Amino acid sequence: MTQSARDLLTSGGGKLQLHYFSIEGVAEQVRIALSVAGIPFDDIHVPFSEWPTKKPTTKYGQLPEMILPNGQLITESMAMLRLAGEADSDGKLYPASDVGMRLKIEEALGLTADLSRAWRPALLIGMRPEKFGYPKKDDWAKDEMQATVKKVREEFLAEELPKFLGFYAGLIKEAGGNAFLLGEDLTIADIAAYQVINYFRKGIADHVPADCLDSYPEVVAFLKRVEEHPKVAAYKASKA
Fold first, then answer.
1. What is d(CA 196, CA 193) in angstroms, rounded to the nearest whole number?
2. What is the largest CA-CA distance in the chain?
3. So what's the pLDDT on residue 1?
4. Is residue 42 within 8 Å of 18, Cβ to Cβ?
5. How far apart are the first and last CA of the chain?
6. pLDDT mean over 63-69
7. Which of 83, 107, 64 is nearest to 7 (CA)?
8. Which of 191, 197, 195 is nearest to 162 (CA)?
9. How far is CA 41 from the centre of its chain?
C-alpha cells in the first residue's frame, strides 16, 4: 500500500530524527518546514569535534541525514524539504493535488538554488581558496587573502545580489505585493528563499554588511512576513 508523506514521517514505531550540526545551515529550512507541517522530530546536533569520526558512517559523507520512524535513511536536504512540505496537513506548503502550484514552487526553488550557487565562490574562497586556484589558506599571505576575499564578495554584492533581489521583488509584486512569493499561502519556496536571503543581513560574513538588503524594502518586508507566520514564529520562539 502506498504511504502518504505524513505517514512516512510519523508512522513506524519510532520518532523522526534529523541529524545536523548545531547551526542553521541547509537543515534549517527542513526544521522550519517540519514545524509548519506539524511533524514532531528529534533535532539531533552533531558536535563538530565528532564529525571526523561520524563522517565515514554517513551515506554520502555529509549531513543532514534524516531517519524516518521506520528506520529508513533519507539524504539530501531538498528531498527532505519536499517531503516535509507534502506532509503538511493543511496542504499548502507543497500541495500534492495542485500541479500548477507545485510547478511555481519548483521554479522559485530553482531561483533560490541559483542564488546559493552564485554566492558559493564568494563564501568558500575564504575557507578553501585552493578550490579556486589560490594557495591553501595556511599557505596564502594573510593580507593578500583578505584583499581577494573582500574583492570577490564586494563584486557579488554589486552584481549578483541586486540581480537576484530584483527577481524576488518581481515575484512578490506578481503575487500581490503583500503576501508570499507565490500568493497568500506560505510554501516551501518561501522557506528556502527566506533562509538563503536572510543570511545576508546577519552580518556574519566578512565584507557583507547587515544593511545590504535595505535597498529592497519589498524583499525585507517579505522576510518579515515569513518570520511572522504563526507557525514559523512558534518554531523560532521554541529555539529562543
1. 5
2. 62
3. 44
4. yes
5. 41
6. 98
7. 83
8. 197
9. 18
